[in-house]
Specification:
CATH superfamily of the largest domain: DD-peptidase/beta-lactamase superfamily
Order of helices and strands: EHEEEEHHHHHHHEHHEHEEHHEEEEH
CATH class of the largest domain: Alpha Beta
Number of helices: 14
Helix content: 25-40%
Structural class: alpha+beta
Strand content: 5-15%
Amino acid sequence: MNEPVTDVSTDCVALGFDGARLERVLAVITADVEARRCDGAEIIVARGGQVALHGRRGYADRAAARFLGADAVFASMSVGKQFTNVLALHYVERGDLRLHTPIADVLPAFAARGKRRATLMHLLTHTSGVPSAIPVIPVEDLIDVERLAAWAAAQAPESQPGERVTYSVLAAHSVIAAMLLRVAGRGRSFAAMLEEELFGPLGMRDTSLGPRADLLARLCPLTVCYEEPGLFDPVQVLGFGQLLRIPGAQVPAGGYLTTACDVHRFAEMLRRGGELDGARILSPAMIDFATRNRTGEKPNSLWDYTFDLRGWEPWPACLGAGFFLRGDAVTPGPFGALNSPRTFGGMGAGSTCFWIDPQRDLSFTFLSTGLMEDSRHIERLALLSDLVVAALT
């Protein structure tokens, strides 16, 4: 096991943490790496913007015996959806779009096959009926924003807008991106829009949509640490890892390269009400709106497979306008039982997560290598989250 880097801060007591309890977080990550449940992980926990824990354990590439270092770059997986969502909310605040804007008003092809009523808000809450599974289409269509959006426009909806939470793994966020390109692209690629409007202003210098040569050189390979059935077949995961390396690939639902420090900056912007280091991305009013439950008691179809695999009961999706929310129920999910109900954030397949607990002024960032099966991943996240909150005194 590689040596710890920063780990529990000497200032953690001043921030309200019990240092010994906070060490338990690292012990759980170490145990997962040693048991080969994952290959490695980096975690950052901060309170009021001050880092209480920054730990790094395990491997960037176990097969090559390469430990995680300070320069490690990770595949964002679906944490990248929140980058796309925040940019969409940013353009809503600028007046280029409205949350109730029908997709078809911006992308006319969506007026066909029962999708006329689907809106931007439906896309943000995964209630649009846009296909949920990874499309079986040529790779060149999968990695192109406008081609994937056109494919989605040609499909019949899986459900009527607003009827069900049908989590869209890839397609919905290419539709969001295509809408943004249409109303505010001004000849830019979607990757360029993100760099100019989000990553650059926030100082996220090690984040890109799609491959960037300097980041690819430091990228932890996408590997899988499970063979059991799950949300994704391991072959699908490995295939997605190859997409990340294709020149020009843009997959707004999760095809980002990033670092723990950059995701931490993104989370801190949200914790601070939409601003970081003088860069205002969103207003506090928008964050308050976007982090309230907009899906009621509807379950998230993403987790239907767990009913048989794990014996779990359906539970509320609890989605806001682009974020997963904690809510009040005691359910499986990436946030712990001890997180406050208004906790919000994002997570990615088997490996990534961030959250903000506004009641306790906490931010949490977790990026890992060697994907877990997804239901095991959300249990791991809930455990780590509970350990963090339980360390507060």
